[in-house]
Every structure is written in structure tokens, then in C-alpha cells.
Specification:
This protein is α/β, with parallel strands linked by helices and 281 residues long. It is 54% helix and 13% strand. It folds into 2 domains: 4-165, 3-Layer(aba) Sandwich (Rossmann fold), CATH 3.40.50.720; 173-259, ProC C-terminal domain-like fold (Orthogonal Bundle). The longest helix has 30 residues, at 248-277.
């Protein structure tokens, strides 16, 4: 790979720039980025990471192997309109635009593209994203390997069918917020039972890290691991009983199903809006 051109300079774009450079996937001189008009932001990325920040679209796309679409989804129509004359069928176009289908991107680009659509989460900022990616039929086996290498710079990567991405959005795309919500509750309870907030926060974080590592490394299911630390008549059993009485597990299931349905609804509306915005007036 020679060059990546990133369209959009927000937090997700920065996460990929950081991951790419830390993992030596591209030389920094071959990482190019642009945005709509925030020159201060573009200069900050250029100065901090030593990459190219430019509004010269010809220079941005010349020789690019990968084009990453990382603008805000609502701005996709205008952004793709502005760059489509520079896109070629040989480029691998990678989208991190939530809710924007591959067919919509091709409609906006007006040429056949080798397309990757992805659903990373905000943990990409620390290299711990759980990312699902889908590819279209024009993506070659070599480009699939390139895609895997790219997304592994920001965390774990799984390949799925495009129609599964809404479920991924409901599960891991929004997932960090569910965990933060749980941490909030644990922090509040820790204060109420007499623990200092800073110490409690450290204990909570380490508890979550330890539990996640146990699930990752153990051959046992999460249900089995839970049962093994739930002694009859003990403190864990007493706590779990309260969670069950309040229907916490079912609430999480309903939460993810609802988020998945909302992702489908928002994606359909956004794709329709973008394609309408691209029609001649």
C-alpha cells in the first residue's frame, strides 16, 4: 500500500491516523487528510501526527490506494459530490459512515466502487474498537486483507454481511455507552456504601477488565463463569437476586433490540435523504 486519503478529520479519523502510524501500516508522508472547512483542526492533525492536511483534492487523491469516508453522515451527499470526479474503480473506498448503505455511496459516487462499510465504536480512540465490516462484490481478496490490516490498527475486526450491521450497531456500536451506564451505577452505589469515589472507580475499572479477560481467555461460557462465583447463600447470590428481580438482563436484551431497530430506521431515512439531496434541482 502506498497512500491513504481520509475525507473527514473528526475523532474517528484521528483514531485511524493514530492507529495507522503506531502500527506502521503507512508511512506518515503517505497519510493524507482533508475536511470541509475547519482549517484549525486540519492543521492540528498535521502538526501532531506529521501527516498531510490539504484542501487540494487533486493532490489528496493522486496515487491513493485507499479512500476513507469519515465525514459526518449527514454531510455525505455534499462531500461525495465534491470528490467523486477523483474516485476511480481501482481505489478501495472504506466508509465509517453510520447508517449509510453501500448502494447509497455508489449512487452518490456515480461509478462502480470496491466498497467497505464498517461499524467501529468510540473505543477506536484507544485502539480497542470492536469493529464489524462488510464488503461488496468488487472487493478483491487482497483488498480484504488490506481492510483487515487497516481496522486491526484500532482494535478487533469481524467480517459480516451488510444487513447485519444494524445489529452490530445496536450491540457493539452503542455498546460502550451501555458499559459506561453500568459504571455510573456502580460508582453511585460505591459512594452510598461508604467508599471513596477515586478508589471505587479504580476497583470498578479493574473488575471490568478482569471479568472481560476471563471471558476472553476461558473456554467456559459467561453464564458458567457467573455461576462459579455465585455461592449459595453468599453475597454474589444476594446481589444477583436483586438484578433478576429488577429484570436487568431482560432490560439489556430489550435495549440492544431497540437500538438495532432504531439503527435500521435511521439508516433508511438517512439513505433516502442523501439520495434525494443528490438529485438535480
Amino acid at each position: 500500500m502506498k497512500k491513504i486519503a481520509i475525507v473527514g478529520a473528526g475523532s474517528m479519523a484521528e483514531a485511524f491516523i493514530s492507529g495507522i502510524l503506531e502500527n506502521d501500516l503507512f508511512d506518515r508522508k503517505n497519510v493524507w487528510v482533508t475536511n470541509n472547512s475547519n482549517e484549525i483542526r486540519l492543521n492540528n492533525l498535521r502538526d501532531h501526527y506529521g501527516v498531510h492536511g490539504t484542501y487540494d483534492l487533486k493532490a489528496l487523491f493522486e496515487g491513493a490506494d485507499i479512500v476513507m469516508l469519515a465525514m459526518k453522515p449527514k454531510d455525505a451527499a455534499a462531500a461525495i459530490q465534491s470528490i467523486r470526479e477523483h474516485l476511480t474503480e481501482q481505489m478501495l473506498v472504506v466508509s465509517v459512515l453510520a447508517g449509510v448503505s453501500m448502494s447509497t455511496i455508489e449512487t452518490l459516487a456515480r461509478i462502480p466502487l470496491a466498497l467497505v462499510r464498517s461499524m467501529p465504536n468510540t473505543s477506536a480512540a484507544v485502539g480497542k474498537s470492536a469493529t464489524a465490516v462488510a464488503v461488496n462484490q468488487r472487493v478483491t481478496s487482497q483488498q480484504i486483507e488490506t481492510t483487515k490490516n487497516l481496522f486491526e490498527t484500532v482494535g478487533l475486526t469481524s467480517f459480516v454481511k451488510e444487513e447485519q450491521l444494524d445489529a452490530v450497531t445496536g450491540l457493539s456500536g452503542s455498546g460502550p455507552a451501555y458499559i459506561y451506564y453500568l459504571i455510573e451505577a456502580m460508582e453511585k452505589s460505591a459512594v452510598e456504601v461508604g467508599l471513596e469515589k477515586e478508589m471505587a472507580s479504580a476497583l470498578i475499572v479493574q473488575t471490568l477488565l478482569g471479568a472481560a479477560e476471563m471471558v476472553k481467555k476461558s473456554s467456559k461460557s459467561s453464564a458458567q463463569l457467573r455461576k462459579e462465583v455465585t455461592s449459595p447463600g453468599g453475597t454474589t447470590e444476594a446481589g444477583i437476586r436483586v438484578l433478576e428481580e429488577h429484570g436487568v438482563q431482560q432490560a439489556f436484551i430489550s435495549c440492544i433490540k431497540t437500538a438495532t431497530a432504531q439503527s435500521k430506521k435511521m439508516g433508511a431515512a438517512l439513505s433516502s435523504q442523501l439520495e434525494t439531496a443528490d438529485q438535480p434541482s
